Amino acid sequence: MDLSILVSGTLWLLPAGVGAALVIWGVLLFFIARRWDWTRRRRMHQLRIGRSIIPVLPMLGILGTVWGLMDTLLFMRNKTGGNFDIAGVVDRFGVALNTTFWGIIFSVLAIVIYEFQLGQLEATDEDAEE
Asked: What is the per-residue pLDDT across 17-37, written as a single tens digit (0 to 9) for each?
């Protein structure tokens, strides 16, 4: 197996790993904040941290896509001698799209969790005002 496809084949782990950690962190934050009765200020601080990480996830996916496309083009350049392997091109191109897919999926999940927690916090504020 070619080392470049191994490296680009594992690049999807970057957005997926960061995204999974962010989603798990968001879910845990929800339960911890309720259990320990955190102040509004502390919950907002934690939400701001999550909000600042959310835009990074699609960027990590795009980084993997660019890497995969560069790898695909280099692979195609090296195979121009008539011995063209379409399966190798498809494998490398699939890796490029895979990283974008996971970056988008986890950023959408993180946004949903962020908005849910923000809604919970605002509902708590409205209950306190009444």
From this structure: 777 777 777 777 777 766 666
77-117: per-residue pLDDT in tens?
777 666 767 887 787 788 788 888 888 888 888 888 888 88
Is residue 128 classed exposed, middle or buried when 0-12, 13-18 and 19+ CB atoms within 10 A define those classes?
exposed
| Cα gap 39→47, rounded to integer Å | 12
Domain ranges of the chain: 3-118
Of 48, 59, 73, the C-alpha closest to 14 is 59
Q: What is the pTM (predicted TM-score) of this model?
A: 0.69
Nearest to 54 by CA among 83, 26, 13: 26
CB atoms closer than 10 angstroms to residue 89 = 15
The phi-psi region of residue 111 (left if phi > 0; otherwise alpha if psi is between -120 and 50; otherwise beta) is alpha
* Two structure tokens written together for 10: 């594992």
Closest to 42 (Cα-Cα) out of 111, 106, 126, 124: 124
14-49 in b/e form (b: 16+ CB < 10 A) is bbbebbeebbebbeebbeebeeeebeeeebeebbee
